[in-house]
């Protein structure tokens, strides 16, 4: 069954009269733009490898919290005729079905590449409001969020940097550094959950997942939401500005935190923990790039020096 057919079959389970359907984007998941006579929707066909139904239910619960507790714009998930937010369409895969979800379509303009000091302050305020919305939340039984308690926290993540087929790209020093650094980071992340109360966080805040329209900022892509800490979201967002030549990273971080603290007095950012979270993300991406690029040499040249730099400071 082709994905277009999956989309049209899924739409039969919703109370909408489709006028047109167009492929919108293909990233980790596949998106279609659905138009009716008076509305537009985004239909998402989930990747089997990137998430499971528990992740989808956590995502949808998070969206509901934000829409009910804040004025932040984010796509509203549309229940199907059975009142469920996840629609299953029979499919010839391991699970026997494809997961589909339908959302209000919220178009926006990206700021990536055009960030200003005011932008970082405003995004800090938005993220602080998002974090306040999940503070002290008691979850229903169907929501069982993942925890970022180690570098490779997803069950389906395969750690590949030891595989022989990547040996031509990696030096023994690189492997030795990763072998020593990853257990250290794992211990620090795991210990966080013994000493602090976690909350639901976005966990995939990137410059591309935040856009703006005439009503303000929009936050997208909550699929990786998990139980964690504000510092994880903040470090995840700022990670993308760490090596930008056109951005003063430390000024951008200061402006972000200024906006954040104008709304939410926490967190007190431990700079060592902040850097550790960014390195944990870099290691995950490093491992992931090995699996998706035929020749990751250039990426390794750009990225691994950052890992080594942190390793030396940690030592």
Describe this structure in words.
By secondary structure, the chain is α+β, with helices and mostly antiparallel strands. 42% of the residues lie in helices and 16% in strands. The chain folds into two domains: 3-107, Phosphorylase Kinase, domain 1 (2-Layer Sandwich); 117-314, Aminoglycoside 3'-phosphotransferase, Chain: A, domain 2 (Alpha-Beta Complex), CATH 3.90.1200.10. The chain has helices spanning 3-11, 53-69, 117-134, 172-195, 230-239, 249-261, 271-292, 297-314; strands spanning 20-26, 30-35, 40-45, 77-78, 87-90, 97-104, 109-110, 199-201, 210-213, 216-219, 226-228. Strands 1, 2, 3, 4, 5 and 6 form a six-stranded antiparallel sheet that branches. Helix 4 (172-195) packs across helix 7 and helix 4 (172-195) crosses helix 8. The chain is globular, with a radius of gyration of 20 Å. The model has no long low-confidence stretch (mean pLDDT 93).
């Amino acid at each position: 069954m082709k994905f277009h057919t999956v989309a049209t079959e899924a739409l039969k389970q919703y109370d909408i009269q489709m006028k047109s359907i167009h492929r919108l984007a293909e990233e980790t998941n596949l998106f279609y733009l659905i138009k009716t006579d008076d509305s537009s929707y985004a239909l998402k066909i989930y990747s089997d490898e990137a998430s499971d139904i528990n992740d989808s239910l956590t995502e949808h619960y998070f969206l509901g919290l934000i829409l009910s507790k804040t004025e932040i714009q984010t796509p509203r998930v549309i229940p199907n005729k059975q009142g469920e937010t996840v629609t299953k369409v029979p499919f010839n895969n391991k699970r026997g079905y494809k997961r589909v979800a339908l959302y209000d379509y919220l178009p926006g303009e990206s700021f990536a590449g055009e960030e200003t000091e005011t932008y970082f302050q405003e995004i800090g305020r938005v993220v602080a409001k998002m974090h306040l919305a999940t503070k002290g939340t008691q979850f229903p039984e169907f929501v069982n969020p993942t925890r970022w308690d180690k570098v490779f926290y997803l069950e389906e993540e395969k750690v590949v940097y030891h595989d022989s087929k990547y040996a031509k790209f990696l030096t023994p020093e690189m492997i030795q550094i990763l072998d020593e650094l990853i257990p250290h980071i794992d211990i620090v992340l795991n210990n966080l959950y013994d000493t602090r109360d976690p909350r639901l966080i976005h966990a995939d805040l990137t410059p591309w997942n935040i856009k703006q329209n005439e009503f303000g900022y929009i936050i997208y892509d909550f699929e990786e939401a998990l139980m964690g800490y504000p510092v994880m979201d903040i470090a995840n967002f700022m990670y993308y500005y760490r090596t930008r030549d056109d951005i003063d990273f430390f000024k951008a971080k200061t402006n972000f935190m200024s906006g954040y603290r104008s709304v939410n007095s926490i967190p007190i950012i431990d700079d060592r923990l902040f850097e550790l979270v960014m390195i944990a993300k870099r290691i995950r991406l490093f491992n992931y790039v090995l699996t998706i690029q035929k020749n990751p040499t250039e990426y390794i040249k750009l990225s691994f020096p950052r890992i080594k730099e942190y390793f030396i400071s940690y030592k």
